[in-house]
Amino acid sequence: MGITFLTVFVIYMLIQYVPSYREKVQDATLILVIAGLIAFTISCFFISVYSDAMDAIYTTYLLEI
Amino acid sequence: MDNYVLIILAFPISIILALVIMLFIRLTASCFIYLLIIVTFAVLVCFGIYLLIMPSLQGHSTHPLIASNASRILIAIGALLLAILIVVMACCFRKRLALASSIVKVSANFVSSNCGIVFLPLLLFFVMILFIALWILEALGYYSLGTPKTGTHQYPFQHFDIPQWIFAIGAFHVFYLLWTLFFLIETGSFIVGGAAVSWYYKRDAPYGEASERYRKKHIGSVCLGSFFMALLGFIKFLYELVTPEQKEGTTGCLATYKKFCDCICCLCTSFLFQWFNSGAFSVINLAGDSYCTAAGRAFSIRLNNIGTTSIVSIVQAVTLVVCRSSPS
Fold first, then answer.
1. Which of A18, A57, A64 is the mutation pick for testing B, counting most B CBs within 10 A?
2. In this structure, are residues B108 and A50 in contact, taking their beta carbons and an 8 Å threshold?
3. Residue B11: which residues within 8 A CB-CB, separation 6 or more?
4. Tens digits of per-residue pLDDT, B285-320?
5. N or C: where does chain A have the smaller number of CB atoms within 10 Å of the terminal CB?
6. Quick check: pTM over 0.90?
7. What distance in Å separates residue B76's CA from the closest CA in chain A?
């Protein structure tokens, strides 16, 4: 499961099950879209470390063999 | 007000989830790929069997594909065949998969032994936000250089008539935004890649060495790499602007430009160029070559190992999809 989906799911659960949010939030679509965008951006930055490291290690391996 | 709290909550939630998923990759690095293959195989087989042994679905489902008996059996056979195909592919490419798995494992080891490096992209992200705020201010400044005008139905702020030369500055301003954003992204890639290479050769301070190498020798290479990325982004931006105005049967320069852009898009140049850039930065970090020489070397070495490179790229894309729901 992606970080984006999980974050949106957690926010959706908060809206559904926390009484104060359930009463006040009429339409959750915009909040979920914004939360999804934030989560996607953050996940891109965190996971890019893995992606860049994999690229660098693979190229190093190819140059070594 | 409560809505803002929910949006702000998205930041810590996604950061915590990112850390949890990174920990998960670290713990399952050696078997991560095999785990994904097994899960995919199991899901496809279960789905196929479920469709085959549940004829009662016909009565309950309203979906036209599952409601029909023939379609249900065809979908089930398709799912089972796909499961078998995945197993056959995994068996055929087991050595390359083992290599890809080792690369995931080594990169997970690198990230866990240099935890601090995770904060570099996050720092660059905040720098980017500050830069975008500055860029918007500059854009408003250029807009205000026009002649003030008033209309009957307009938004409640001062409107201006924009002469052609301000539009030209605006185009340059968009390019400047793209170049700077790509420069910040590629800076992160260069330093992380450089730290990974230094760590691979068991240097004492991989991150310090990589950032020093970047600051003292290779900012120009990163600038050039990000310039090409920005140029590609700018061509795409122009293409998006031009395309909606295209009419059928348009001839001349515009039609030629559209065909040219279509060809470029078909070849997925941006994806290829990103791939090209990351290889170039790794070679620069290893050998200290100039950007063009390093890019040429990285490209030829990857082309000579195209089979292995493809499998590693697929594994990398699948890992990214699992982690963040996007392949690149």
1. A57
2. yes
3. A38, A42
4. 888 888 888 888 888 888 888 888 888 888 877 777
5. C
6. no
7. 24
Select from A6, A52, A38 the least CA-distant residue to B320: A52
C-alpha to C-alpha distance for B160 and B146, rounded to whole angstroms:
5
Residue B229 in tokens? 């990325």
Report pLDDT digits (tens) over A31-42: 889 888 888 888
The H-assigned helical ranges of chain A are: 3-17, 19-24, 29-64
B324 contacts in chain A (CB < 8 Å): 2-4, 40, 43-44, 47
Which positions in chain B touch A53 (Cβ < 8 Å)? 107, 110-111, 192-193, 195-196
**Contact flag B125-A45 (C-beta cutoff 8 Å):** yes
Could you give the angle at which helices B306-324 and B291-304 cross, rounded to 10 degrees? Answer: 100
* Torsion region of B238: left, alpha or beta (phi above 0 gives left; psi -120 to 50 gives alpha): alpha
d(CA B303, CA A61): 14
